[in-house]
């Protein structure tokens, strides 16, 4: 089977953390050309193309032609000193999806604080520009300081140029938020700032055309503040959030909600699924494929608050939500990804150069406990018009 063909319609996992060793260099993918049951998802490994260095919590960025995946930020392991668990990765890495080879690209004006920056999210427009905000740089020794950022950064994957902006009305520093792009606006939802968990009733957004920050209040149903949740943009233009964790490691309510940003003020709606939801998750990954939101990895949130020192159990399962009727399903139907009248991608013989990505970070348990660097949805369509690339998801250290 042609591995590049699989990359055209797959969920890709880049880089793992197995606790011992702490980081690995694996590249995995989940083939979405065929139907499968969530009990046994068909994960596979690209054994010929490990990451140049074991890596954790980097942000994958896909070029507009789908030929290259860039890994920005993240941490690696000090092979000379096992007492230092994490150090900044030495460079940005690029993975060629045609020949499955890794290189270290040159990026003009690169912001070196992104070598080691974690707990951030990024989103791309259809012109190949990735937008990053916030993130965290951990202290490696007693002499170094941990920093939570609130700078605005743009990585142009076409020009291979980096831009760091200082702008008025920039939101507070934050991590573990979710992000999605719609109609040239990037929406930042939830997360944690230096002052604590962020209110869900104030939604900052970034205008990618005019390069300025905006903010809007919300109305509608009460949505509990959270971090470590996921976000996808549904086919009908709603922002759908799932999971997360509240203060005191508590379960959030509601677990599923939508935000309509097409009205003023924005409108929240709590969603009750048509069947029993899966176990509540945080720091998981989610990506939208047609009508299906595919959820994997993460940790399980209990119904009762836990002390800050408590460790959350790891999620070993994959879940799928039909976003048309808000039903959790047991089977991924590759022939029905857009509903009853859809056509399977498997029957398509030609692909345009457009690509759609969903990015997230999470934790998966297989033989051992594995933490994922990058989890993204990569697919191509016939005669597809250019559109923004929403990149949902969250990050967490193990």
From TrEMBL:
Keywords (A to Z) from UniProt: Kelch repeat, Membrane, Repeat, Signal, Transmembrane, Transmembrane helix
InterPro entries: Kelch-typ_b-propeller (IPR015915)
Signal peptide: 1-18
Gene3D superfamilies registered for this protein in UniProt: Kelch-type beta propeller (2.120.10.80)
Domain of life: Eukaryota
Residue spans crossing the bilayer: 357-378
Listed name of the protein: Galactose oxidase
